[in-house]
From TrEMBL:
Keywords: Acyltransferase, Transferase. Substrate binds at G150. This is Hydroxymethylglutaryl-CoA synthase. The lineage of its organism: Bacteria, Bacillati, Bacillota, Bacilli, Bacillales. Belongs to the thiolase-like superfamily. HMG-CoA synthase family. It comes from the Bacteria.
Length: 385
Protein backbone atom coordinates (compact mmCIF):
# COMPACT_ATOMS: atom_id res chain seq x y z
CA UNK A 1 0.00 0.00 0.00
CA UNK A 2 1.33 3.44 -0.85
CA UNK A 3 1.77 5.78 2.04
CA UNK A 4 -0.23 9.00 2.14
CA UNK A 5 2.22 11.87 1.77
CA UNK A 6 1.37 15.47 1.00
CA UNK A 7 0.73 18.95 2.34
CA UNK A 8 -0.35 19.01 5.98
CA UNK A 9 -0.50 22.81 6.35
CA UNK A 10 0.06 25.75 4.01
CA UNK A 11 0.09 29.53 4.15
CA UNK A 12 1.32 32.50 2.16
CA UNK A 13 2.79 35.88 3.01
CA UNK A 14 2.90 38.95 0.77
CA UNK A 15 4.58 42.27 1.65
CA UNK A 16 2.30 44.94 3.16
CA UNK A 17 2.32 47.32 0.15
CA UNK A 18 0.65 47.19 -3.27
CA UNK A 19 0.13 49.20 -6.43
CA UNK A 20 -3.24 49.41 -8.15
CA UNK A 21 -2.91 48.27 -11.76
CA UNK A 22 -5.21 51.02 -13.08
CA UNK A 23 -2.86 53.61 -11.52
CA UNK A 24 0.13 51.88 -13.11
CA UNK A 25 -1.57 51.74 -16.52
CA UNK A 26 -2.44 55.46 -16.38
CA UNK A 27 1.13 56.32 -15.36
CA UNK A 28 2.52 54.23 -18.24
CA UNK A 29 0.00 55.66 -20.74
CA UNK A 30 -1.58 52.25 -21.33
CA UNK A 31 -5.32 51.40 -21.49
CA UNK A 32 -6.06 49.99 -17.96
CA UNK A 33 -8.00 47.12 -19.57
CA UNK A 34 -4.75 45.79 -20.99
CA UNK A 35 -3.52 45.15 -17.43
CA UNK A 36 -6.91 44.31 -15.87
CA UNK A 37 -8.22 42.06 -18.68
CA UNK A 38 -5.37 41.43 -21.16
CA UNK A 39 -2.82 40.52 -18.45
CA UNK A 40 -5.45 39.81 -15.76
CA UNK A 41 -3.98 41.66 -12.78
CA UNK A 42 -5.74 44.06 -10.34
CA UNK A 43 -2.94 44.79 -7.86
CA UNK A 44 0.77 44.12 -7.54
CA UNK A 45 2.65 43.42 -4.28
CA UNK A 46 5.65 45.66 -3.63
CA UNK A 47 8.34 45.40 -0.93
CA UNK A 48 10.71 47.94 0.63
CA UNK A 49 14.45 47.18 0.78
CA UNK A 50 14.15 46.03 4.40
CA UNK A 51 12.04 43.01 3.34
CA UNK A 52 13.57 40.14 1.37
CA UNK A 53 12.87 36.48 0.59
CA UNK A 54 13.92 35.47 4.13
CA UNK A 55 11.44 37.98 5.59
CA UNK A 56 8.60 36.58 3.45
CA UNK A 57 9.59 32.93 4.02
CA UNK A 58 9.76 33.33 7.81
CA UNK A 59 6.43 35.14 8.04
CA UNK A 60 4.71 32.51 5.86
CA UNK A 61 6.20 29.60 7.85
CA UNK A 62 5.34 31.24 11.20
CA UNK A 63 1.67 31.06 10.22
CA UNK A 64 1.68 27.26 10.16
CA UNK A 65 4.33 25.79 12.48
CA UNK A 66 3.65 24.45 16.00
CA UNK A 67 6.29 23.64 18.66
CA UNK A 68 5.86 19.95 17.76
CA UNK A 69 6.54 20.71 14.07
CA UNK A 70 9.77 22.55 14.98
CA UNK A 71 10.88 19.42 16.78
CA UNK A 72 9.95 17.02 13.97
CA UNK A 73 11.16 18.94 10.92
CA UNK A 74 14.47 17.46 9.74
CA UNK A 75 14.70 19.27 6.43
CA UNK A 76 14.15 22.88 5.31
CA UNK A 77 14.10 23.58 1.57
CA UNK A 78 13.68 27.00 -0.01
CA UNK A 79 12.84 27.22 -3.70
CA UNK A 80 13.82 30.64 -5.07
CA UNK A 81 15.19 32.46 -8.08
CA UNK A 82 15.84 35.71 -6.19
CA UNK A 83 18.28 34.41 -3.59
CA UNK A 84 20.30 36.84 -1.45
CA UNK A 85 23.60 34.96 -1.62
CA UNK A 86 25.40 33.06 -4.41
CA UNK A 87 26.64 30.46 -1.92
CA UNK A 88 24.85 30.27 1.43
CA UNK A 89 21.25 29.04 1.36
CA UNK A 90 18.49 31.25 2.74
CA UNK A 91 17.05 28.03 4.24
CA UNK A 92 19.88 28.05 6.81
CA UNK A 93 18.86 31.51 8.04
CA UNK A 94 15.20 30.51 7.97
CA UNK A 95 15.99 27.41 10.05
CA UNK A 96 17.51 29.62 12.79
CA UNK A 97 14.82 32.30 12.73
CA UNK A 98 12.10 29.66 13.12
CA UNK A 99 13.91 27.74 15.90
CA UNK A 100 13.86 24.35 14.14
CA UNK A 101 15.76 21.55 15.93
CA UNK A 102 19.39 21.49 14.82
CA UNK A 103 19.70 17.98 13.35
CA UNK A 104 18.19 19.06 10.08
CA UNK A 105 19.24 19.54 6.46
CA UNK A 106 18.74 23.04 5.04
CA UNK A 107 19.31 24.09 1.44
CA UNK A 108 18.05 26.09 -1.51
CA UNK A 109 16.88 24.85 -4.93
CA UNK A 110 16.91 26.82 -8.17
CA UNK A 111 15.26 26.35 -11.56
CA UNK A 112 13.34 29.57 -12.15
CA UNK A 113 9.69 29.28 -11.06
CA UNK A 114 9.95 25.48 -10.99
CA UNK A 115 12.23 25.53 -7.87
CA UNK A 116 9.30 25.29 -5.43
CA UNK A 117 8.05 22.14 -7.13
CA UNK A 118 11.53 20.56 -7.17
CA UNK A 119 11.65 21.30 -3.41
CA UNK A 120 8.20 19.81 -2.86
CA UNK A 121 9.03 16.61 -4.78
CA UNK A 122 12.30 16.26 -2.82
CA UNK A 123 10.32 16.64 0.40
CA UNK A 124 7.69 14.07 -0.61
CA UNK A 125 10.38 11.51 -1.47
CA UNK A 126 12.15 12.15 1.85
CA UNK A 127 8.93 11.59 3.81
CA UNK A 128 8.24 8.36 1.89
CA UNK A 129 11.59 7.09 3.27
CA UNK A 130 11.27 8.72 6.71
CA UNK A 131 7.56 8.74 7.56
CA UNK A 132 8.10 9.95 11.12
CA UNK A 133 9.70 13.25 10.05
CA UNK A 134 8.32 16.47 8.55
CA UNK A 135 9.77 18.77 5.90
CA UNK A 136 9.30 22.51 5.60
CA UNK A 137 9.16 23.69 1.98
CA UNK A 138 9.07 27.41 1.25
CA UNK A 139 8.83 29.05 -2.16
CA UNK A 140 9.89 32.70 -1.79
CA UNK A 141 10.65 35.33 -4.40
CA UNK A 142 10.66 38.94 -5.54
CA UNK A 143 9.62 39.35 -9.19
CA UNK A 144 11.14 42.54 -10.61
CA UNK A 145 11.56 43.43 -14.27
CA UNK A 146 12.34 47.16 -13.95
CA UNK A 147 10.33 50.39 -14.02
CA UNK A 148 8.41 50.90 -17.27
CA UNK A 149 9.72 47.57 -18.65
CA UNK A 150 7.53 45.14 -20.65
CA UNK A 151 7.35 42.80 -17.68
CA UNK A 152 6.48 45.53 -15.14
CA UNK A 153 2.75 44.66 -14.91
CA UNK A 154 3.72 41.06 -14.12
CA UNK A 155 5.86 41.84 -11.05
CA UNK A 156 5.03 40.78 -7.47
CA UNK A 157 6.56 39.41 -4.28
CA UNK A 158 5.87 36.93 -1.51
CA UNK A 159 6.25 33.39 -0.18
CA UNK A 160 4.26 30.20 0.31
CA UNK A 161 5.17 27.81 3.14
CA UNK A 162 4.13 24.15 3.12
CA UNK A 163 4.59 21.47 5.74
CA UNK A 164 5.00 18.06 4.12
CA UNK A 165 4.20 14.94 6.15
CA UNK A 166 2.55 11.54 6.18
CA UNK A 167 -1.23 11.49 6.65
CA UNK A 168 -1.41 15.13 5.48
CA UNK A 169 -4.51 17.10 6.38
CA UNK A 170 -4.90 19.06 3.11
CA UNK A 171 -3.81 17.11 0.03
CA UNK A 172 -2.18 13.69 -0.49
CA UNK A 173 -0.08 13.42 -3.64
CA UNK A 174 -0.32 10.60 -6.17
CA UNK A 175 2.89 9.05 -7.44
CA UNK A 176 2.24 10.21 -10.99
CA UNK A 177 4.36 13.31 -11.59
CA UNK A 178 5.70 13.86 -15.09
CA UNK A 179 8.42 16.41 -15.86
CA UNK A 180 9.76 17.89 -19.09
CA UNK A 181 13.12 19.63 -19.63
CA UNK A 182 13.90 21.81 -22.65
CA UNK A 183 16.99 24.08 -22.91
CA UNK A 184 15.29 27.34 -23.98
CA UNK A 185 16.20 30.98 -23.28
CA UNK A 186 12.78 32.48 -22.65
CA UNK A 187 13.64 34.06 -19.27
CA UNK A 188 16.98 33.97 -17.43
CA UNK A 189 19.07 36.12 -15.12
CA UNK A 190 22.86 36.00 -15.61
CA UNK A 191 24.95 36.25 -12.41
CA UNK A 192 25.35 39.92 -11.45
CA UNK A 193 22.22 41.11 -13.26
CA UNK A 194 19.52 42.71 -11.09
CA UNK A 195 16.71 42.03 -13.55
CA UNK A 196 15.98 39.04 -15.75
CA UNK A 197 16.47 38.89 -19.48
CA UNK A 198 13.09 37.96 -20.92
CA UNK A 199 11.63 37.14 -24.29
CA UNK A 200 7.97 37.68 -23.37
CA UNK A 201 6.31 36.11 -26.44
CA UNK A 202 8.69 33.09 -26.35
CA UNK A 203 8.05 32.59 -22.61
CA UNK A 204 4.29 32.61 -23.13
CA UNK A 205 4.57 30.27 -26.10
CA UNK A 206 6.92 27.86 -24.27
CA UNK A 207 4.63 27.78 -21.23
CA UNK A 208 1.64 26.77 -23.39
CA UNK A 209 3.61 24.26 -25.48
CA UNK A 210 5.15 22.71 -22.32
CA UNK A 211 1.73 22.28 -20.77
CA UNK A 212 0.29 20.68 -23.91
CA UNK A 213 3.26 18.28 -24.22
CA UNK A 214 3.24 17.27 -20.56
CA UNK A 215 -0.54 16.97 -20.41
CA UNK A 216 -0.69 14.75 -23.49
CA UNK A 217 1.97 12.38 -22.14
CA UNK A 218 0.57 12.48 -18.59
CA UNK A 219 -2.93 11.49 -19.70
CA UNK A 220 -1.44 8.67 -21.78
CA UNK A 221 0.68 7.32 -18.90
CA UNK A 222 -1.73 7.86 -16.03
CA UNK A 223 -4.95 6.89 -17.83
CA UNK A 224 -6.50 10.01 -16.29
CA UNK A 225 -8.65 12.25 -18.47
CA UNK A 226 -9.68 15.84 -17.87
CA UNK A 227 -13.10 14.64 -16.73
CA UNK A 228 -11.47 12.88 -13.73
CA UNK A 229 -10.21 16.20 -12.33
CA UNK A 230 -12.22 18.45 -10.02
CA UNK A 231 -9.80 21.31 -10.76
CA UNK A 232 -6.43 22.18 -12.26
CA UNK A 233 -4.08 24.67 -10.64
CA UNK A 234 -1.37 26.45 -12.67
CA UNK A 235 1.83 28.43 -12.22
CA UNK A 236 0.48 31.99 -12.50
CA UNK A 237 3.05 34.55 -13.74
CA UNK A 238 0.00 36.68 -14.58
CA UNK A 239 -3.51 35.34 -14.34
CA UNK A 240 -4.23 35.27 -18.07
CA UNK A 241 -1.26 32.88 -18.60
CA UNK A 242 -2.70 29.74 -17.02
CA UNK A 243 -5.99 30.35 -18.79
CA UNK A 244 -4.29 30.53 -22.18
CA UNK A 245 -2.63 27.15 -21.49
CA UNK A 246 -5.86 25.65 -20.19
CA UNK A 247 -7.84 26.77 -23.25
CA UNK A 248 -5.25 24.99 -25.42
CA UNK A 249 -6.34 21.56 -24.09
CA UNK A 250 -10.10 22.06 -23.75
CA UNK A 251 -11.05 21.30 -27.35
CA UNK A 252 -13.00 18.05 -27.62
CA UNK A 253 -13.78 17.90 -23.88
CA UNK A 254 -17.41 17.77 -22.68
CA UNK A 255 -19.09 21.08 -21.98
CA UNK A 256 -19.55 20.05 -18.35
CA UNK A 257 -15.83 19.35 -17.87
CA UNK A 258 -14.82 22.57 -19.66
CA UNK A 259 -17.15 24.70 -17.55
CA UNK A 260 -16.15 23.03 -14.31
CA UNK A 261 -12.40 23.38 -14.89
CA UNK A 262 -12.72 26.99 -16.15
CA UNK A 263 -14.87 27.98 -13.14
CA UNK A 264 -12.28 26.48 -10.78
CA UNK A 265 -9.47 28.28 -12.61
CA UNK A 266 -11.14 31.59 -11.69
CA UNK A 267 -11.09 30.57 -7.99
CA UNK A 268 -7.39 29.66 -8.24
CA UNK A 269 -6.36 33.12 -9.46
CA UNK A 270 -8.22 35.26 -6.88
CA UNK A 271 -5.12 35.84 -4.71
CA UNK A 272 -2.69 36.19 -7.63
CA UNK A 273 -4.83 38.98 -9.11
CA UNK A 274 -3.98 40.94 -5.94
CA UNK A 275 -0.35 39.90 -5.43
CA UNK A 276 1.13 39.44 -8.90
CA UNK A 277 3.87 36.96 -9.71
CA UNK A 278 5.45 35.15 -6.73
CA UNK A 279 7.65 33.15 -9.17
CA UNK A 280 8.27 29.84 -7.27
CA UNK A 281 5.28 30.44 -4.99
CA UNK A 282 2.71 31.24 -7.69
CA UNK A 283 1.44 27.71 -8.31
CA UNK A 284 1.02 27.18 -4.56
CA UNK A 285 -0.61 30.58 -3.99
CA UNK A 286 -3.01 29.41 -6.72
CA UNK A 287 -3.65 26.14 -4.90
CA UNK A 288 -4.39 28.00 -1.64
CA UNK A 289 -6.69 30.37 -3.52
CA UNK A 290 -8.52 27.45 -5.14
CA UNK A 291 -9.02 25.57 -1.86
CA UNK A 292 -10.05 28.66 0.12
CA UNK A 293 -12.41 30.09 -2.49
CA UNK A 294 -14.02 27.14 -4.33
CA UNK A 295 -17.02 26.15 -2.25
CA UNK A 296 -17.95 22.92 -4.04
CA UNK A 297 -14.73 20.93 -3.68
CA UNK A 298 -14.78 17.90 -1.37
CA UNK A 299 -12.60 15.20 0.14
CA UNK A 300 -11.40 12.71 -2.46
CA UNK A 301 -11.50 15.25 -5.31
CA UNK A 302 -8.60 14.95 -7.76
CA UNK A 303 -6.59 18.18 -8.20
CA UNK A 304 -4.00 18.59 -10.99
CA UNK A 305 -1.01 20.91 -10.60
CA UNK A 306 1.04 22.37 -13.45
CA UNK A 307 4.42 23.84 -12.58
CA UNK A 308 6.50 25.83 -15.07
CA UNK A 309 9.97 27.30 -14.69
CA UNK A 310 11.49 29.20 -17.59
CA UNK A 311 14.62 27.80 -19.06
CA UNK A 312 12.60 25.46 -19.10
CA UNK A 313 11.29 22.73 -16.79
CA UNK A 314 7.62 21.86 -16.54
CA UNK A 315 5.87 19.25 -14.41
CA UNK A 316 2.34 17.98 -13.98
CA UNK A 317 1.32 16.06 -10.87
CA UNK A 318 -1.83 15.39 -8.90
CA UNK A 319 -3.26 14.84 -5.46
CA UNK A 320 -6.51 14.10 -3.69
CA UNK A 321 -8.14 16.35 -1.12
CA UNK A 322 -8.25 14.93 2.38
CA UNK A 323 -11.29 14.65 4.70
CA UNK A 324 -11.96 17.99 6.47
CA UNK A 325 -9.17 19.77 4.53
CA UNK A 326 -11.19 22.99 4.94
CA UNK A 327 -10.40 23.03 8.67
CA UNK A 328 -6.66 23.28 7.95
CA UNK A 329 -7.00 26.41 5.80
CA UNK A 330 -6.25 29.95 7.02
CA UNK A 331 -8.81 31.78 4.91
CA UNK A 332 -9.54 34.57 7.41
CA UNK A 333 -5.88 35.23 8.15
CA UNK A 334 -5.09 35.37 4.42
CA UNK A 335 -8.03 37.68 3.64
CA UNK A 336 -6.98 40.04 6.45
CA UNK A 337 -3.39 40.04 5.28
CA UNK A 338 -4.41 41.07 1.76
CA UNK A 339 -6.92 43.64 3.01
CA UNK A 340 -4.53 45.33 5.44
CA UNK A 341 -1.86 46.25 2.90
CA UNK A 342 -1.11 49.89 2.15
CA UNK A 343 -1.79 51.18 -1.35
CA UNK A 344 1.14 53.12 -2.82
CA UNK A 345 0.94 55.97 -5.30
CA UNK A 346 3.01 55.38 -8.43
CA UNK A 347 5.53 57.92 -7.15
CA UNK A 348 5.86 56.05 -3.82
CA UNK A 349 6.18 52.74 -5.68
CA UNK A 350 8.91 54.09 -7.95
CA UNK A 351 10.83 55.50 -4.97
CA UNK A 352 10.50 52.19 -3.07
CA UNK A 353 11.47 50.21 -6.16
CA UNK A 354 14.62 52.26 -6.78
CA UNK A 355 15.75 52.40 -3.13
CA UNK A 356 17.99 49.35 -2.96
CA UNK A 357 19.67 47.66 0.01
CA UNK A 358 23.42 48.26 -0.06
CA UNK A 359 25.03 45.29 1.68
CA UNK A 360 28.47 46.89 1.38
CA UNK A 361 27.46 49.64 3.79
CA UNK A 362 26.96 48.86 7.50
CA UNK A 363 23.67 50.40 8.65
CA UNK A 364 20.62 50.05 10.93
CA UNK A 365 17.14 49.95 9.36
CA UNK A 366 13.66 50.81 10.65
CA UNK A 367 10.70 48.59 9.68
CA UNK A 368 7.78 47.43 11.82
CA UNK A 369 7.31 44.11 9.99
CA UNK A 370 8.40 40.95 11.84
CA UNK A 371 11.58 39.41 10.38
CA UNK A 372 12.37 42.52 8.35
CA UNK A 373 16.03 43.52 8.03
CA UNK A 374 17.18 45.38 11.16
CA UNK A 375 20.80 45.92 10.17
CA UNK A 376 23.58 45.06 7.76
CA UNK A 377 27.05 44.38 9.16
CA UNK A 378 30.01 43.19 7.10
CA UNK A 379 27.53 42.36 4.24
CA UNK A 380 25.44 40.16 6.60
CA UNK A 381 21.72 40.91 6.94
CA UNK A 382 20.26 40.63 10.45
CA UNK A 383 16.52 40.19 10.88
CA UNK A 384 14.08 41.36 13.56
CA UNK A 385 12.58 38.49 15.51
N1 LIG B 1 -8.10 45.64 -23.40
C1 LIG B 1 -8.07 44.29 -23.21
N2 LIG B 1 -7.00 43.52 -23.56
C2 LIG B 1 -5.93 44.14 -24.08
C3 LIG B 1 -5.91 45.53 -24.31
C4 LIG B 1 -7.08 46.30 -23.95
N3 LIG B 1 -7.12 47.61 -24.11
N4 LIG B 1 -4.71 45.83 -24.85
C5 LIG B 1 -4.02 44.69 -24.97
N5 LIG B 1 -4.74 43.65 -24.51
C6 LIG B 1 -4.39 42.24 -24.43
C7 LIG B 1 -3.68 41.72 -25.66
O1 LIG B 1 -4.59 41.43 -26.70
C8 LIG B 1 -3.00 40.48 -25.10
O2 LIG B 1 -3.95 39.45 -24.95
P1 LIG B 1 -3.66 37.98 -25.54
O3 LIG B 1 -2.37 37.55 -24.90
O4 LIG B 1 -4.83 37.19 -25.09
O5 LIG B 1 -3.54 38.14 -27.00
C9 LIG B 1 -2.63 40.90 -23.68
O6 LIG B 1 -3.41 42.07 -23.39
C10 LIG B 1 -1.17 41.23 -23.49
O7 LIG B 1 -0.82 42.10 -24.53
P2 LIG B 1 0.61 42.03 -25.22
O8 LIG B 1 0.91 40.64 -25.64
O9 LIG B 1 0.69 43.12 -26.24
O10 LIG B 1 1.50 42.41 -23.96
P3 LIG B 1 2.99 42.79 -23.83
O11 LIG B 1 3.70 42.83 -25.14
O12 LIG B 1 3.00 44.02 -23.01
O13 LIG B 1 3.62 41.54 -23.01
C11 LIG B 1 3.97 39.88 -21.35
C12 LIG B 1 2.94 40.81 -22.02
C13 LIG B 1 4.67 39.02 -22.42
C14 LIG B 1 3.25 38.97 -20.37
C15 LIG B 1 5.01 40.77 -20.59
O14 LIG B 1 4.39 41.43 -19.56
C16 LIG B 1 6.18 39.98 -20.04
O15 LIG B 1 7.20 39.82 -20.72
N6 LIG B 1 6.08 39.47 -18.76
C17 LIG B 1 7.14 38.71 -18.14
C18 LIG B 1 7.28 37.29 -18.71
C19 LIG B 1 6.16 36.36 -18.29
O16 LIG B 1 5.49 36.54 -17.30
N7 LIG B 1 6.00 35.27 -19.07
C20 LIG B 1 5.02 34.25 -18.73
C21 LIG B 1 5.48 32.86 -19.11
S1 LIG B 1 7.10 32.55 -18.38
C22 LIG B 1 6.77 32.02 -16.80
O17 LIG B 1 5.68 31.62 -16.51
C23 LIG B 1 7.87 32.06 -15.81
C24 LIG B 1 7.71 33.29 -14.99
O18 LIG B 1 7.05 33.28 -13.95
C25 LIG B 1 8.36 34.52 -15.47
Amino acid sequence: MTMNVGIDKMSFFVPPYFVDMTDLAVARDVDPNKFLIGIGQDQMAVNPKTQDIVTFATNAAKNILSAEDLDKIDMVIVGTESGIDESKASAVVLHRLLGIQKFARSFEIKEACYGGTAALQFAVNHIRNHPESKVLVVASDIAKYGLASGGEPTQGAGAVAMLVSTDPKIIAFNDDSLALTQDIYDFWRPVGHDYPMVDGPLSTETYIQSFQTVWQEYTKRSQHALADFAALSFHIPYTKMGKKALLAILEGESEEAQNRILAKYEKSIAYSRKAGNLYTGSLYLGLISLLENAEDLKAGDLIGLFSYGSGAVAEFFSGRLVEDYQEQLLKTKHAEQLAHRKQLTIEEYETMFSDRLDVDKDAEYEDTLAYSISSVRNTVREYRS
